[in-house]
Fold this protein.
Amino acid sequence: MPAVYERHGVRFQYPENWNLIEESTRWPREITLESPSGALWALHVYFPPDSPSRLLQDALKAMQKEYEGIEYSSVTEQLHETATADGYDLYFFYLDFVVECRLRSFTYRDKTFLLITQAEEREYQQLEPVFRAMTTSLVRHLAGQV
């Protein structure tokens, strides 16, 4: 049975064995879910809305400051029939691992969202359906389809 997060005008389902962390009590809200293996799905909610491109640039710069040799490419992704997000796919080395990270941002009604998913590359491929399901449950709720 999946767990449900519902606060601050957002709602989504997530695996019940993942650790939920809320890192702020003011805007932007930061909700991070961490898998038992350390993969993460993090959602930053901005109210009032902010510029998705600026948020993406800031997130990319922060990642580049934290990790050396990041390779990245720009993408546009259809998250659901009601939401399209711009973003970056990033790859970098951490210890002896190749890490895959995806940054996505979009505005929906009165909020802007920055979504970050990250895991070791092979694990990312295994968890991608879980990340996608969590994101889809978020966007479906925003669109009133839940």
Notes: Helices lie at 52-66, 121-142.
